[in-house]
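Run folding on both entries below.
>entry_1
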Amino acid sequence: MRGLPGNAAYSASKGGLIAMSQAVADEVGGSGVRVNVICPGPIETEMLMQSKLRDFLLKNKESLLPPEDIAGAALCLASDLSGGLNSQVITVRNSNRW
């Protein structure tokens, strides 16, 4: 949802995925296929812990999410509970806007 310093290409690719998913959702919506996106905050992974941006992203340690929080959002989207959701961007994060 936001660009990261020193990561313009990566940030642009994430924005492109959001736009692409919304276009695809409109293209296939009539066939019963739903397309949504999950945009997580910082997730507690080995990749994040090794990242040069770790300290920038984790200014507030409470913003770190366990992988299970993202899995919960994915399970919701895969269930009947999300029947009315299509072409949506689901943001899963605590207090950190990154």
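>entry_2
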Amino acid sequence: MWSDVEKAGLDLAKKLCEDDPVRKNIPYDWRVDSPNKEIFHLEEKAVLCVAHLNAIPITEEELMSFGWGNFSIFYTVWSKEKGLGRKIIVDTWELLKMQHTGNRYVTMSPKTEMAMKFHLSNGAILLQENSETNNFEYK
């Protein structure tokens, strides 16, 4: 059940983003500065950053410049406990499907074997490979 997933405000976003191993250079305040950008967490032990955009980004520059739309982009996820990365992806995805009907749920993932295995094992499909990132889609 997604009831464990909570949305972070600005103060908590600052604290949570200090531990981001994927996208440290994206400012914490940008991640929550408008209604189309959200940070979700599970008891501060797992974190998922989401931006609802009008196109699928393949670089951080695109991620930060695209406008609001119906692509929910999961652009960074990390956890401090085994199994919580999967839980936050699945639980947040279920929550967002109720809030944003008709959206597509796509990642902007680093090109690592770990990210590839993680998303494929959690039910995503590889949508496209890019020079810097891979996009997986959860359907």
